[in-house]
Every structure is written in structure tokens, then in C-alpha cells.
Design a protein that fits this description.
Blueprint lengths: L2 H4 L13 H11 L3 E5 L5 E6 L19 H4 L2 H12 L3 H4 L6 E3 L4 H11 L5 E3 L8
């Protein structure tokens, strides 16, 4: 069995400029756990998932650090966590490194890739012979 045999073809997408609140509402309404992020030219620039929406200040789920942990954490990591928890737009919280596979990849190859990369989803790249949505 190949990726093209099981992949979703009609996929909801969002843009980097979309607010975090809007994309969270979209994901809840569609009952999906991730949405590809496309730029104004329709190019994939990232993905936003439920994991990207965790630890949000407005939801009261922001990570609380003990004063001691600040001694041992890099300032850049703490700054990145703050930005992510207080961000207002998708581009500030999305995952930029999206793992892609061809539609002819086998499901075994995908399973191995997901296991080794410790990811829950991959983006399929349609071949030139495939028809668009």
C-alpha cells in the first residue's frame, strides 16, 4: 500500500497571518489535530498542530518555572518559550520543519520515518502525474 492510497486530499489549510485563536477554533470545529500553513503563493511554509498550541498564556496553561530552573536553562530557550506562549499569529508558533514524502512512498517507509523522527504526521508531495485537488 502507498501513501496515495490513504492520504487525505481535501485538507484545510491556514496562513502565517492567521491568529492563534482563529486556527484553534478551525481545528476544533473540523476535529483535526494539525493544519498545513501555506504562504500567499500556496507554498507550504509550516504546520500548526495541537502541540504548538499547548502552554498558552490565555488558556492558563503557560509553563511555570521554578526560580531554580532559571539558573540552569539557556536564556534563548526561555525567550522562545515566552514568545510561543504569548504569540498571537500562526507564524509565531508553527513548526517550520515539515517532513514531506512522495505519494508513492510505502506505508512501511512512512511508519519507519515517523518512528525515527518522532513525529505524528507527514506532508505528501504529489507527483507531477497526479491531478490537483
Amino acid at each position: 500500500m502507498r501513501v496515495r492510497d490513504v492520504m487525505y486530499r481535501a485538507v484545510a489549510t491556514t496562513t502565517p497571518e492567521t491568529t492563534v485563536e482563529e486556527v484553534a477554533r478551525l481545528m476544533i470545529n473540523l476535529r483535526v489535530s494539525g493544519v498545513p500553513v501555506l504562504d500567499k503563493n500556496g507554498q507550504l511554509v509550516g504546520i500548526i498542530t495541537e502541540g504548538d498550541l499547548l502552554r498558552r498564556a490565555e488558556a492558563g496553561t503557560e509553563r511555570r518555572r521554578s526560580p531554580w530552573s532559571e539558573w540552569f536553562s539557556a536564556n534563548s530557550r526561555m525567550a522562545a518559550e515566552y514568545i510561543k506562549s504569548h504569540a498571537r499569529r500562526v507564524e509565531d508558533v508553527m513548526t517550520r520543519k515539515v517532513v514531506s514524502v512522495g505519494e508513492l512512498a510505502s506505508l512501511g517507509e512512512i511508519a519507519e520515518l515517523m518512528e525515527t523522527k518522532r513525529i505524528k504526521r507527514v506532508q505528501s508531495c504529489m507527483t507531477e502525474r497526479s491531478s490537483p485537488l
